[in-house]
User: Fold this.
Amino acid sequence: MKGITKLQVGEQVDQFLLIKQATKGVTTVGKPFMSLILQDRSGDIEAKLWDTNEEHETTYRAEAIVRVGGEIHDYRGKNQLRIKQIRLARGDEGIQISDLLPSATTPKEELFEELTQFFFEIKNPNISRITRHLIKKHQDRLLVFPAASKNHHDYASGLIDHVVSMLRLSKAICELYPTLNKDLMYSGIILHDIGKVVELTGPVGTAYTVEGNLLGHISIMVNEIGQAATELKIEGEEVMLLQHLVLSHHGKEEWGSPKKPMIQEAEMIHYIDNIDAKMNMLTRALDKTKPGEFTERLFPLDNRSFYKPTF
Amino acid sequence: MKGITKLQVGEQVDQFLLIKQATKGVTTVGKPFMSLILQDRSGDIEAKLWDTNEEHETTYRAEAIVRVGGEIHDYRGKNQLRIKQIRLARGDEGIQISDLLPSATTPKEELFEELTQFFFEIKNPNISRITRHLIKKHQDRLLVFPAASKNHHDYASGLIDHVVSMLRLSKAICELYPTLNKDLMYSGIILHDIGKVVELTGPVGTAYTVEGNLLGHISIMVNEIGQAATELKIEGEEVMLLQHLVLSHHGKEEWGSPKKPMIQEAEMIHYIDNIDAKMNMLTRALDKTKPGEFTERLFPLDNRSFYKPTF
Amino acid sequence: MKGITKLQVGEQVDQFLLIKQATKGVTTVGKPFMSLILQDRSGDIEAKLWDTNEEHETTYRAEAIVRVGGEIHDYRGKNQLRIKQIRLARGDEGIQISDLLPSATTPKEELFEELTQFFFEIKNPNISRITRHLIKKHQDRLLVFPAASKNHHDYASGLIDHVVSMLRLSKAICELYPTLNKDLMYSGIILHDIGKVVELTGPVGTAYTVEGNLLGHISIMVNEIGQAATELKIEGEEVMLLQHLVLSHHGKEEWGSPKKPMIQEAEMIHYIDNIDAKMNMLTRALDKTKPGEFTERLFPLDNRSFYKPTF
Amino acid sequence: MKGITKLQVGEQVDQFLLIKQATKGVTTVGKPFMSLILQDRSGDIEAKLWDTNEEHETTYRAEAIVRVGGEIHDYRGKNQLRIKQIRLARGDEGIQISDLLPSATTPKEELFEELTQFFFEIKNPNISRITRHLIKKHQDRLLVFPAASKNHHDYASGLIDHVVSMLRLSKAICELYPTLNKDLMYSGIILHDIGKVVELTGPVGTAYTVEGNLLGHISIMVNEIGQAATELKIEGEEVMLLQHLVLSHHGKEEWGSPKKPMIQEAEMIHYIDNIDAKMNMLTRALDKTKPGEFTERLFPLDNRSFYKPTF
Amino acid sequence: MKGITKLQVGEQVDQFLLIKQATKGVTTVGKPFMSLILQDRSGDIEAKLWDTNEEHETTYRAEAIVRVGGEIHDYRGKNQLRIKQIRLARGDEGIQISDLLPSATTPKEELFEELTQFFFEIKNPNISRITRHLIKKHQDRLLVFPAASKNHHDYASGLIDHVVSMLRLSKAICELYPTLNKDLMYSGIILHDIGKVVELTGPVGTAYTVEGNLLGHISIMVNEIGQAATELKIEGEEVMLLQHLVLSHHGKEEWGSPKKPMIQEAEMIHYIDNIDAKMNMLTRALDKTKPGEFTERLFPLDNRSFYKPTF
Amino acid sequence: MKGITKLQVGEQVDQFLLIKQATKGVTTVGKPFMSLILQDRSGDIEAKLWDTNEEHETTYRAEAIVRVGGEIHDYRGKNQLRIKQIRLARGDEGIQISDLLPSATTPKEELFEELTQFFFEIKNPNISRITRHLIKKHQDRLLVFPAASKNHHDYASGLIDHVVSMLRLSKAICELYPTLNKDLMYSGIILHDIGKVVELTGPVGTAYTVEGNLLGHISIMVNEIGQAATELKIEGEEVMLLQHLVLSHHGKEEWGSPKKPMIQEAEMIHYIDNIDAKMNMLTRALDKTKPGEFTERLFPLDNRSFYKPTF
Assistant:
């Protein structure tokens, strides 16, 4: 079955979808309706449910799985789903939320296996032990969390997808610039965003936790490195440097790093993080664009549209 | 005896002074000399030592106490000390470095006693226990460290002087704006800058430590609050809020706070910190200025000169 | 009777309300309707009036008092008033506009009495005479004007409420920082915003006057101080300093002060003004927020949401 | 006699010069000397006086006229005057300070005559009366003051030179854009900078007065327009508009205008002021530059160097 | 017949109009409609067409000429056209698109004649030949293109209107500042924006071409000057200076000029360009505003509203 | 023989050096001297020549090769060379300027061979032909020019060193992000900075040419691509895209790119350029720094000092 975002205007729909977001509304003549955002692995689509009542509002909430019949139509240049039938999925139909979440193309187990291979290349015992301690502590969430609530790698297992992609790039770069310390590079990349598993709520309807809002993933992880070192009775410059790598990976104070990078590995991790995030957004945007045309505006890329060449 | 900064041009000098900084130079005709910055409790003054040799350079280093004879003269509108005799102080002359450091006017013991009174007003047991733990841990350094290497409260015991001044102001403000939580206010103020005792090297020749440069006093203290909570087995929102108070007290990302204030007590601590720092600089600058004239330019106050009214 | 903003969804309404704003609209099928903003002392609420005609448009205008029957319902997460009956209030029903305006909690007469007490503490005769002259000139409007058209102290008598609150805070601060000149502080605070009575139109449907737009309350008041001094035949530095205090109270050129503060009292008045304005907004926003949740975004506080702790 | 800035390295000097600035110094071997800035109508040059004593320091002060013998030499690529003889000018030698000040090329009386012609074209009686009142009040200083202490029109009569040049340009512009009100344009230009006669100390050793620092020429003039209107019993929109023209002529809050231009004449006066100031600097800088080379860096023009074409 | 923007609410419409833009919509109850922007020489107006079907959507597209019957009504304070009848214009009715486009008031042939007169004043043969070559190459489009897709001179022949207006202003300025090189001024103004004929699509439904987006009119024209010089076998500083004039006319890097102005003529062309663009917007906005009121907000003028005086 | 920058304080010098810069000075007692910057392949050092006369000044100019005897001493913490003997090198001593210029470690012929290999991987004939044309046109200068006058790759053959390093990195990146077009990447990198061979004067005493100042290497190269396409009769999107790659490689308008990157290859070339430039500076600065210490401040890296870890 084709993904919901791949259908053309006029095509019929009859499939299971996950309610990502549900909002009540009132038409200008005072009649209640609901706006739903429905998703499957391919992405999401907007849908309207007219003439709703209170029962609809309690039934069709975020995170519910529904079976929907309807048709794709065009609304102001964007596809929308006109709902004709809708009902909740039954337990015996065997549909899982994870079946309907967009997620990394590579299975998460393979990604974790690849991450582990990079981890084994870390030689410094202090760095290696702290890194292992924190991977193990957060392993379950690391495998399924997105890297962000929107923009880049904002899908199930997006976090590990992003980390592994950065590790691959850092390997090539370490060969070209051999003064870089591979142990710091690999450990810094593995740890830099793990704080996201505390900052965010999870892969479905991703939002910020209170702790995420008040402390942020950077401070959360800097704390955890300190606590890990205490627990493992590790002292030495390595602890401070790993904390610095996490602290500074946004590159500038105004982007949320209380210190700018002050070792070369920190500077490079900041570059690699940026490249991988931007390429993830660009690739997805260009994938939806025809040759000779421009992508939609990409807010985190200074709101630019990118051109797709014709050759 | 008058302080070294209170002397007029032409007055004779014969007193013990602390070398704050010593730099070698070569005149334009190739002769070696030394530039010294000499200080006592009243502040510091520049001095030149001509026709020096290697022995001078090894003898007259920073942190040495010297007995100096000479005269004040004017150099480009600023007082300078022309050295006629100089020698190292002898151990039996009984001069301590602390006798020659500028420091808070109120004795540090009295300041600590006042801080303790404020501490006792904290009712919430979690907040109280974490605060006591960290005061005790850093008590020795808290009593003698400056609050900064330059600009405001940059003298021995400047840190506790600043903290107590902020506590007094916060007390008045809590009465005027009763929705503020006094426990969070007092604890937040006591803890907000203690990280400086790790960030800075101490009251003499104050500089940044490597950890101070790479992590900064904010992250250092956020970590310590986390570690204290673990050690004291304290859980609950209080821990996160104290961390947030420290994290956000610079007010903005570009000023080194990875999160802006997101509770009202954090917002207010940021204001109080700012007022007390600025008033410390302003009062000292105006103290050196005659009515009807302008202070020197104050860099952290947007490089402004302030006018001292004639009435 | 409960204030209009205190009612829950589903509660019935039958009370007098003031029309703050009335806008015509057309539904997407071409039928006319009106959007009304209705207010009482507790604040305001949006309401829709369907199927309106020209008579409705001329009857239900801003500043009219109406008797409304209806019910509270939820529209996109905000309360709205569904109007069932509406009519103009009759003169014999004795409802005044001032009965329906949000206003300072303390009666304006008490606030003025408190302001007068502070005024009596001014010792310098030149400062005292200019201040009295301008208080008397604008006394009527000073008692009823808001301090702004939106954001902080944007209610009847908000201006004097703000001024008195600043005076209280400045009293505490003058005790802690005794180099501050109390005469300049009190007079500067009393005068700093009086220009608002020319800049704004008044407490109902507050907007900017042409003079407010083209000159602004700062320049208006600087002029008035000059004119008062001429009239009272006062010469001397005090006139210039009072003008400077008003001129610089926004703190920076980009915030509308043609000169930054250049005396310490000016710097401090800028801080106090800021604190009182921000706390007014914060207190009101937190008052509407449940513990464990965040306030709505507050635009003048960098668009931040603030968290309300659970303890 | 050639102006002091027109002499080549190696040429002999024997002429009267004005001391613009005098600073004491000490050589690196402790010998006193003085740095003088000496000027005549052509501009200024640096000079050193070696082995000075206290008598030199009291004799050769700023604003003294001296007779100097010496030679031009090159110091780090800039011309410097090597003093061989120096003495104070005697009263009977008949040299006036004004003989040695750089000043506008056109005599100030001619400039004032031209300004008067523009003034007579103002038709609106309110605008005309206020303008005449203020021209008369400040006429003496308007004729001799510079427009600034440095950068543009920073010479005797520079203010009126600048105003007349702007009037000429505005005449051409009013013909091309006929919706502009000529009365507002001419009066606004005449008044916009007159506050400088209070802001600055005068044409010799130009500095800021206290009032200039604390209020600035913009607020000073806005006040004077208000006072003039009161005195002349003029009411009406013209007063407010003239005040707005002065208030807004720096164009932006961060450049010292508390309000941005809000009438078209204000916008245009801001442009004309900018063009005339920039062209004054550019013309003088290019005048000193050879074809095929770049001018020195011009700080108020974003620190740019300008190229002088070879054709 | 009155222009469509000059009609009052309630007036009947029956005339030919050009569809500038056509957008599909769906009402909140799911019924399709179209939003049209219709224009004639006086400007444009919004209109709604209810209960549309696919045939409407294919018939009433941008650039179609239609005959419309209907009535003006008020929608949220702006005039809107309620369509009662609509049909396509027939070929035999003889209406051209150019009859319905807003355009320069002066006929394009007269503007071109005036431009030619300025061109003839250029003396330098290299500058003259390059300028003529490029005028001839782009003459057809230069006569009809707008200077922009919105904001200033955004109408048919707006480009040449803008260029000629700048030439007139530059003539007056060259007389007042005689160091300016008239050849560079006139040629620079003529060439500075011709790249717009490649950057934009044309006078109807003006948009950016792909080349316009990726290279921009500045780089396009700098290239063309280079190519013209090669073709005409012209060498010498003139080529580089003309390229620099075009390159720098936006004044700053952040406004799209890769180099700031570095010759005085470049600086002045930047000022003249700015003045003419701003006055074009201001004049049109004030023309629609009553005395004593403010214009709508003008985005390119810092989003300001301008006041129209009452006298 | 050890390079001049590798010598310790106290070591004797007797070797050929190139005068990079020569400046006249006068001591505070009026005696002339010269400041020289002398260099060999290892870098440069400052030296003073006392009691100079006019003959010295004409003999010891920039680009002269001299034989110098002397000793290294310490001046304010930096090494300086005390000259004892100095004379011009004689023609028969066979020393070339290129023997004394710092340059790329890899021989320029090898770098060019590697660049050629990358070039051969370009498949698109239009891209390939334009690229070859421009490589050939500038081949001589491309082999010896630096990439900048200071900061990164500021040595002989620095330009080709930088380009080849970027090509290596882009190869690895194209493998990790396969949607990137290799032809555009390789050609864009080869061409992006070739304009430097016109913008700069050459490898000795590198400065900006007039054309470099007024047009800049970006516009120069965009022109050359256009001219090459005309000459080779190539049309098609490739020309525009290559121009866009060069145009946008500084990433932002304020950094001198008139257009931001708008194709993904442009975005990536900007990242790669940045990484390679920054790593070049960082590696050289860290090379001069001991473990446990900080580098000097690096201006183009936000003036940061970088820490060199101890492990």
Notes: The radius of gyration of chain A is 22 Å. The CA atoms of residues 75 and 95 of chain A lie 30 Å apart. The first helix of chain A runs from residue 54 to 59.
